[in-house]
Amino acid sequence: MKKLILLAAISLMVSCKKNSTAKIDNIQQKQSQFSIVIHGGAGTILKKNMSPEQETLYKTKLEEAIRVGYGILKNGGSSLDAVQKTITILEDSPLFNAGKGAVFTNAETNEHDASIMDGETLKAGASAGTTIVKNPIHLARAVMEYSPHVMLSGKGAETFAQEQGLEIVDPSYFYTEKSYNALQRVKNSQKTAFYNEEIKGSKFGTVGCVALDKQGNLAAGTSTGGMTNKRWGRIGDAPIIGAGTYANNKTCAVSSTGWGEFFIRGVVAYDISALMDYKGLSLKEAAQEVIQKKIPELGGDGGIIAVDKYGNMVMEFNTSGMFRATMNDKGDLFIGMYKD
Ligand code: ASP
Q1: How far, in Å, CA of 288 to CA of 33, rounded?
Q2: What is the pTM of this model?
Q3: Active-site residue 206, yes or no?
Q4: Given 105, 131, 206, 326, which residue is catalytic?
Q5: For 132-155, how does the pLDDT look when each residue is reduced to its tens digit (9 = 90+)?
């Protein structure tokens, strides 16, 4: 009898082990032939502050954008093209803090930062502090493809954009009442404190996209107007390869959004890739480690979207919300804004 119980217990242990191994193997196998994830910024995004009309506006635009990238991937296009075209849709919308809807600086200007990275070649391009380039993500891509550099800034970046024939606009194109009013609110609240809740709630709306294509190539891109009331030529994490954007076919593609200073110090996007590469963590585990532990421990907040080489998609954030959407090869669409 004792022998029988022992045998039963051993076979139970073996089958449990088999199941858990199967679970891990499953994650390490192709989940989706191609996948795409987008974000429209993380921050104080609460249902109680959002009207049904606003919700619909955001959802519609997120869906429009991700479907553009999905279409490219479905037709066998590259993840780089999917990322660039998808971000363009979000940059052209006044809803997000990128391109048209960029936030205002202390000097009442709009200064854009953007970057893109190719996981196959580890080539990357970025631009910072531009004021007249309509789509900063096009500039980032042009820096990657047609310059010998990785990052261009300010006037020089604008000259390069002009030479490349990119669309140039008058700075007034970037005016939106919403962003201008946000600046006035932050300026007023800063009369009482250098950093307070108004300022904390004022930084979201950055956009980003990560994708895996049918060829197995990963790409990531990010675009932003930065933080309301920024000054002194402040540059955030969005154009910094390894902080705001990173892609490597060996591991994953990541785009960040949040309090940029902390994402730079935490080298967030690269750290997630490195945890997978050096420690063998899954994408989900790596993202949780960085976004739920390391960044809050430093005092920062925000989130990331990411996809790994198997098509696993992750959206991790430690704020009350993050505008986000995913699509897999079956065409399943998910759109989210709030924590749950
Ligand atoms: N990370 C951006 C920055 O610090 C802001 C954001 O994501 O909302 O410039």
Answers
A1: 24
A2: 0.91
A3: yes
A4: 206
A5: 999 999 999 999 999 999 999 999
